[in-house]
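Researcher: Here's my situation. A collaborator sent me these components and asked whether they could plausibly form a single complex. I don't have experimental data yet, so a predicted model of the whole assembly would be a useful starting point for our discussion.
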Amino acid sequence: MSQVIDDDPRIIEFDVRTDEMLVNMGPQHPSTHGVLRLVLRTDGEIVSEIEPHIGYLHRCAEKIGENISARQFIPYTDRMDYLAGMNMNLGWSLAVEKLMRLQVTEKARHLRVLISEMGRIASHLVGMGAYGLDLGTFSPFLYAFREREKILDLFEEACGARLTYSYITVGGLTADLPPGWLERCEAFLEQFEPIIREYHALLTTNAIFVKRTAGIGVLSPDMAINYGCSGPVLRGSGVDQDMRRDGEPIYTAMYDGYAFEVAVMKDGHYPRDHAYPAVPADAVLGDCWHRFFVRMLEVVQSMDLVRQAIDQYSACKGPLGEPVKVAEKIPAGDVYLETECPKGQMGFYLIGNGSAIPWRVRARSSSFSNLSVLAELCHGCLIADVPAIVGSLDIVMGEIDR
Amino acid sequence: MSSSVAQLLPVLAAAEGGLNWHGFFFLLFALLACCLAVAVVLADNVVRMAFYLVLSLGATAGLFFLAGAEFVGAMQLMIYVGGTLVLLIFGVMLTAQEPFVSIKTPVRDKVLAGLVGGALLAVLIQAALSGPAWSGSAAEGGGGVALAAGQPSATPLGMALVGIRVDGDVASGEKSPEDGQVRSGYLLPFEIVSVHLLVVLVGAAYLARSKRRKSSGGQGADLSTGGMR
Amino acid sequence: MAEYLIQTVGLPGWLTWSLLAVLSAVLILNLMAGGALVFIWAERKVSARIQDRLGPTRTGGSFGWLQSLADGIKLLAKEDLMPEGADGMLFRVAPYVSFCASFAAFIGLPFAFDMVGLRLNVGVFYVVAVLGLEVFGVILAGYASASKWSLFGAMREAAQVVSYEVPLGMCIVVPVMLAGTMDLVTIAEKQAGWFTNWYLFHDPFTFVVFWVYVTCAVASVNRAPFDLAEAESELVAGFHTEYSGLRWSFFFMAEYSSMFLVSGLAAVLFLGGWNGPVPIATLLGLSDGTGESTGAIVRLLGLANLLGKATLGVLIMMWIRWTLPRLRIDQVMTTCLKYCTPIAAVMFAGAMTWLWVFPGGVLNLDDGSRRPGEIREGWLEGPGGRSTAVSDAPVDDAPALAEIAEVSK
């Protein structure tokens, strides 16, 4: 036997004998963000290969969409990215409106910006807190949820729900804001602003956090584009793309009159980075730290947008406008629209055939594309880096499996 | 036979009219050490072997503590038990081809080992029983364990190992008759033993090395099933 | 106490010693179990307060102080599971190995003058040696669980604890060197008086060594940010993934008592042991500061002092745990090998030199009777007076001192 091995030309190394091991991380693993199952091929602590297995949360949302009217599908979009239901509502509504050539009122437009940017803050807070959890620190998670609760309180006041809102809908919104809501929202922003500094102190600039994230899971801009990554994952690699600015007119028109700068590193600088912590020396563009930092910057950006939206909305006179009827017929034709959801570009595709029920519904999930790059990122990393990388992608299984 | 056992065990025979705890614990630890040592031999799983070995060595440490030699006892715990720990890890990591490897010994080897071990045991028993403390103890009727102050201890030897002769040589400036030098303890032999140990370690590491294939990809279980069939 | 029982009460000697042994064992066991209850409750409350929560509020009244007991009852009632492929004997025995190691280590820790399970002339060495055995239970648990996550946890723990024992030992040698003895009682006694006599403030080197000790102690008892063996975001629950019920709680008791133990050891070695920052007892005339002539009140004061310091240490570990993210295994090893060990070694050499240059220390005004390089009394002397009558042999050899200390470690 040994003779055979000795003669084998493929054998070049003499080393301590090791065995590789297959490890199932998930679907019931604490840090796989729901029911993701990762199969790791490990040699000791080093991961040589990783393969995500998905489908544990598949609920046939798209097929259901082909059996109910377009407006009835709104609650199902809530349950895709259940951490950013408002943004998912908006994406579907805009897609249907594009097919129906519908124009919402000016007041509804500003209210949509206001609500969806609040939703973005809430989603990024979860992403940030859960990322801390992935790295083994529990407290930032609860600090993030504390603030998110306040956003959910505001949402509850506006639409009655805390998680699955169905607030933004085809043709407008289901209701106008209750009295005093804007003041409470402003008060929230006021008290939330200094707390971001705490998050930076606990995570972004924490030495251990930087050690765990800087230079880990580096995603090159080319690879990010090739895999179809989007959202903070794409911008964390330095690709300057944001659907709110670069998307289709029906979506970008929503942000007409709003001033915001896409959170992406250009020439080694983030916009407004003077007010926020400096990029650590070890961080490489496209690593976990940058993906995290882009989200933190987008929270500030969204706060800014919310403030602008509050001003614009309160300047609007007149009615909010009524949403379409539940069984409103949609014209024949097909339409595809991508919006900038907190996790990335969420695309909805639907074909109408003149009846109220769409003939075909498809969703293009940003988390799905972002997750697909995982195998590339995790090649040769340590086991402890796997949660760090998965967490930095900020995936939501409800959106991937639909 | 029974009389010799009684001779060996003046232990539970009441020294002060009550139970002799020193004797009791001596017996307990000695019995534990011996039984667990036998268990090491009989176990067929490398981790269990290591576990029994640790317990056996721990019981030996207990004997040292009982004899008032705390330093040696703690040393025993630190070095032997700690060393076994490392042995265990290396045993699992380097020798085990699969989890729960079991080692089966052929009967022929068992007989051979029994003969060698038995012979060694006989020699040891003979040597031990011929010692003055043992032969005299039964007659004096005292406890089995000497604890009297002023008893010779291992301390001077230990100090000599690190280069200090505390038995008065240095202080009195007594010269060695051979070369006229002040005796400086046993530092050199101590260091030689250390280097020897290092050589053994390096050798063990060399033996544990094996050949690895150039590329490990494309072999082994399939990731798409997660190793489940 | 033994003499009192024998001579005044007239109990036979063997019964007296047995009683005293059982008494010490029961006290320590209760300290461990009770301490674990209190600390688990404290951990819940501390973490809750850090995280803007309330923690337990209802169980047992206003502060939820019975929460740990309720948890304990729940754990008792839980089904005791064992994985199918597990090595049954080792799986069952592993928690007790950890627990016993922790328990045995407490025997050597003094709580106040003469309040020690067993006064050993090599107390420090004994405590460190026994505490190192706790990892053995963890490794057995990880191996016997037949779970890959458990095995990862066990291997991490083994690598980590074995590595951190090196700098930890070096840190511990420094106070041993200053005191000239490995007897914990004597080490604490020598720091009597004002807090400036504490070895923490003995010289700059010991001050640094203390913080290295803190780092290594946190690592060696597996607390965040070094809690890799049970890293829940990576290894599910690490070595105790497959444990439930009472066995699982034994691991926790071992963990909390180890935390308490290393804190207590820090208190004895660096923070004056049972001597408070201000020598109240001496100032009030209750004690002459030597320990020998202390009364019961002073000893209770000392006990409160030591428990207070150790509890403070545990609370600081909790504070760290709920604040910092977890390091990665390679970073943990780097911290040990590239930072802790060299720093400890340099500080050890520094403290040695300092002792050579200022034999009496700087802040603690010694009587100055020591000569440089002298092997001081206590080196070779046991508490029971088992002196080998060699303590006065002067050796004009500084490296020899270092070597003694090194080997003693």
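Model: Some features of this prediction you could bring to your collaborator: Chain C has one domain: 78-408. The two ends of chain C are 33 Å apart (CA to CA).
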